[in-house]
């Protein structure tokens, strides 16, 4: 039984990270129908920014939890700036081009960012400092749930809750949903689509960065290419949930995380990545609109 | 209030509007009638800045607006209810209305307008928490008009408000259009349903193949032999 619970918790942990990244894919797709292949790199950059901040603050002797909070904050803002800039430079000029052009531009951006970090930082694994304190109340279950995993789950859930409330209730959130449903009509109401698109990239990048910091402090390492696999898996999660759907991305992330975890635990961990991509292929074959995908909009 | 002169509009290399000139005075209901594909919707989209004109000028209260992006034109008080209503199907009725007031900061005024709208269309008050996509065609048209009214427009552009609706709903919608106009909003009404449109309008323009071919008082157009033959089916 403990084995099952452990696998479950580990699935939820990785699922949280997938969900955080998948949200960025799905929100961007919902508004401009672009698969932002550079999104995984934003997640990777988040972990590197946090690494730099944590190293600096660590030298100055700050307490661990304080360092983690500052690192997350700085990484979030920094990555949001990256996301904003990437959209402005690589996608906005191609807004009216055929759909293939921004897609190629996105792949180019992904390759560029990976190589940039590999040259500017290092192409080796980087040790990420351990920043998560031992939570006393976790001691009875410490053998199945590490404090870092606990923090990933709690933080992700809180962030997703905050995002849902923002999208549901704020003026900007409503404008984002309206723009996703019909951009011309949103413009006719005075909504500036450029603002909304920028906001989408900023929010998506911030979420990915939070995921990047959390995972780096969980595994204790980061590398310039961690965004590639994580990005593709999060993309799978977004497709699984129904690309364009925000609750879908969350659900897709958790389902994918659980499948991987149980697959690795009960079948073989060698096939871990195979499960994720088998799911992607099956979903695309049998239910391309995903678990919570939008039914085709009926226009009367 | 609105002065369009010599406007040409292109979609790519195809010219959709040829040298369009028309004017709308404060407080009027002006209608633009014509067959399907004559360029009526393009005219509205050109006014709103969605499809900017290639040449010519559009002035709103003397101020040129033809270079403005669509979301700026709205700020001046020009709102469009587009063809096919384009309500946001996955947003609730209330959220659709909120978005109509997207640019407004005067909370008291917004609440006042909302009360006025719920008085005009009690059905919308009843369905305020339903998603827009679940409304009937007539209700969606009411919602689309209401959403535009939430912006408290000075000039309301209506594109085929009667399209696809039952006759009884159509008369209801035209009744509302008259009321809104009496409430102080200038109206530019684009219609294929020339009979109804000319009955509520003060003046009318007839459009054919992207050109304005006739302009007159609405009652004269209603009596005009050519108009009767071509658009009224009499």
What number is the mean pLDDT of chain B?
91
How many domain units of chain B? Answer: 1
Q: At the first level of CATH, what is the class of chain A?
A: Mainly Alpha
Poorly predicted residue ranges of chain B: none
Tell me roughly what share of residues is in helical segments of chain A: over 70%
Give the overall shape of chain A, derived from the CA principal axes. globular
Distance between the termini of chain A: 53 Å
- Widest beta sheet: strand line-up of chain B: 6-7-8-3-9-10
Largest sheet of chain A: 2 strands, antiparallel
Structural class of chain B: alpha/beta
CATH topology grouping of chain A: ABC transporter involved in vitamin B12 uptake, BtuC
DSSP helical segment count of chain B: 10
How does this model look, in words?
The complex is a heterodimer of chains A (300) and B (234). Chain A has helices at 2-32, 39-59, 64-91, 100-120, 147-169, 171-181, 183-188, 193-219, 226-241, 246-266, 272-286, and strands at residues 126-127, 221-222. The radius of gyration of chain A is 19 Å and the shape is globular. Chain A has one domain: ABC transporter involved in vitamin B12 uptake, BtuC (Orthogonal Bundle), CATH 1.10.3470. With 300 residues, chain A is mostly helical. Chain A has a two-stranded antiparallel sheet. In chain A, helix 9 (226-241) packs across helix 10 (246-266). Chain B is of the alpha/beta class. Chain B has one domain (27-52, 68-232): Rossmann fold (3-Layer(aba) Sandwich). Chain B has ten helices and ten strands. Chain B has helices at 40-48, 70-75, 93-100, 107-120, 122-126, 137-149, 167-182, 194-200, 218-223, 225-232, and strands spanning 2-11, 14-24, 29-34, 55-60, 63-64, 78-81, 155-159, 186-191, 203-208, 211-217. In chain B, the strands form two sheets. A six-stranded mixed β-sheet of chain B has the order 6-7-8-3-9-10, with helices on both faces. In chain B, strands 2-1-4-5 form a four-stranded antiparallel β-sheet, with helices on one face. In chain B, helix 3 packs parallel to helix 6. The model of chain B has no long low-confidence stretch (mean pLDDT 91). At the A-B interface, helix 6 and helix 7 of A face helix 2, helix 3 and helix 6 of B.
């Amino acid at each position: 039984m403990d084995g099952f619970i452990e696998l479950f918790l580990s699935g939820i942990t990785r699922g949280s990270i997938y969900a955080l990244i998948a949200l960025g894919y799905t929100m961007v797709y919902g508004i401009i129908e672009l698969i932002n292949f550079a999104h995984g790199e934003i997640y990777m950059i988040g972990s590197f920014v946090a690494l730099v901040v944590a190293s600096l603050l660590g030298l100055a002797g700050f307490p661990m939890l304080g360092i983690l909070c500052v690192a997350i904050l700085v990484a979030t803002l920094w990555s949001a700036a990256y996301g904003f800039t990437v959209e402005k430079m690589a996608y906005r000029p191609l807004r009216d081009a055929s759909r293939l052009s921004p897609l190629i531009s996105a792949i180019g951006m992904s390759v560029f960012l990976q190589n940039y970090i590999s040259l500017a930082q290092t192409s080796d694994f980087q040790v990420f400092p351990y920043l998560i304190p031992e939570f006393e109340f976790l001691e009875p279950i410490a053998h199945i749930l590490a404090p870092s995993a606990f923090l990933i789950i709690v933080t992700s859930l809180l962030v997703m809750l905050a995002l849902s409330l923002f999208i549901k209730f704020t003026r900007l959130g409503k404008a984002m949903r309206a723009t996703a449903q019909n951009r011309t009509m949103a413009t006719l109401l005075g909504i500036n689509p450029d603002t909304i698109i920028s906001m989408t990239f900023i929010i998506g990048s911030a979420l990915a960065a939070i995921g990047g910091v959390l995972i780096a402090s969980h595994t204790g390492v980061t590398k310039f290419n961690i965004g590639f696999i994580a990005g593709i898996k999060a993309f799978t999660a977004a497709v699984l949930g129904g690309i364009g759907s925000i609750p879908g991305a969350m659900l897709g992330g958790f389902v994918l995380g659980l499948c991987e975890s149980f697959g690795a635990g009960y079948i073989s961990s060698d096939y871990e990545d195979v499960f994720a991509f088998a799911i992607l292929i099956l979903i695309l074959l049998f239910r391309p609109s995903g678990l919570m995908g939008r039914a085709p909009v009926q226009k009367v | 209030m609105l002065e369009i002169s010599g406007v040409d509009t292109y979609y790519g290399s195809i010219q959709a509007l040829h040298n369009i000139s028309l004017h709308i005075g404060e407080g009027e209901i002006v209608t633009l009638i014509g067959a399907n594909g004559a360029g009526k919707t393009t005219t509205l989209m050109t006014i709103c800045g969605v499809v900017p004109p290639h040449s010519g000028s559009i002035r709103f209260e003397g101020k040129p607006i033809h270079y403005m992006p669509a979301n700026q034109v709205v700020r001046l008080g020009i709102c469009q209810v587009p063809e096919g209503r384009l309500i946001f199907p996955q947003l609730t009725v209330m959220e659709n209305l909120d978005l109509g007031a997207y640019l407004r900061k005067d909370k008291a005024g917004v609440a006042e307008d909302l009360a006025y709208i719920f008085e005009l269309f009690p059905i919308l008050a009843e369905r305020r928490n339903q998603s827009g996509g679940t409304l009937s065609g007539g209700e969606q048209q009411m919602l689309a008009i209401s959403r535009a009214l939430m912006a408290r427009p000075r000039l309301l552009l209506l594109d085929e408000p009667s399209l696809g609706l039952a006759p009884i709903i159509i008369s209801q919608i035209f009744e509302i259009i008259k009321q809104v106009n009496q409430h102080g909003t200038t109206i530019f009404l684009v219609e294929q349903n020339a009979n109804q449109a000319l009955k509520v309008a003060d003046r009318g323009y007839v459009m054919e193949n992207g050109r304005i071919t006739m302009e007159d008082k609405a009652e004269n157009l209603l009596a005009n032999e050519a108009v009767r033959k071509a658009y009224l089916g009499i």
